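ok so dumb question maybe but i'm new to this and my supervisor (M.) told me to 'just get the structure for YALI0F30011p' and walked off. so i did the thing. is this what she meant?? sequence i used:
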Amino acid sequence: MPQAGLKKREKTSKVKKPTGKIAPKRAAPRKIAPRRKSAQRDVEIAKKHQAALTATTEKLLASRVGHLEILKGNRREIEKKNKEDEEKKKKKAANAQPK
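this is what came out, is it supposed to look like this??
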């Protein structure tokens, strides 16, 4: 005869996903293609020149702000370097003329 009752095993803890209501993902906004010829042409041009547009925009911002990665140095440093280059050219031109 057993002296004590059988021990029940402890349940292992399982990781479960929360069962609360989760909202479904919303669909991305649909892109409607233009119908007018002029609008279609505008879209093609924008696609074609998008890289150039972003590059010029970033360059413009960098010249104003001075700390974006595209330009090395800030606006003042770049202007100073350009001024030094112009002075060197003037000196070379002045030295070359008397000959």
